[in-house]
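Memo to structure team: turn this sequence into structure tokens by end of day. - J.P.
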Amino acid sequence: MAPSLSLDVQHVWRLASVIVLLWLAWFFGRTLARHKTPLIEQIARRGEPELKPMLVTYTRRLTWLWCAYFLAGALLSAILISSAFPVGPLVGLGSVLLFVGEHAVRPRIFPGEVFPGLAQQVRDTWAVWH
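Reply from structure team:
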């Protein structure tokens, strides 16, 4: 009799979240290659096509940060794939906090610069992703 291969729904869901997080890390990371425009710079240029050099550097670093965040989330999900710990909601909440928190901190890092509101930033992000 052949052994049966069974995966419960929780394991499949956890595996899917690892794959999605790795894909997001790749999606952001591929834009960091030489002669490419980092994803977050693309988003920033929707509202300000002539981005200052200091903001270009900042957007590149922020794109790196998101890559690292998604890789860390994938690693945590993979490590805890068999546990009951709710990694998915934690990673989702962390994403919201990182997005909103960065938006709140950015004017303090660059005083005197004008940035789009949070709703416009969401629209710009959505437009670049499509």
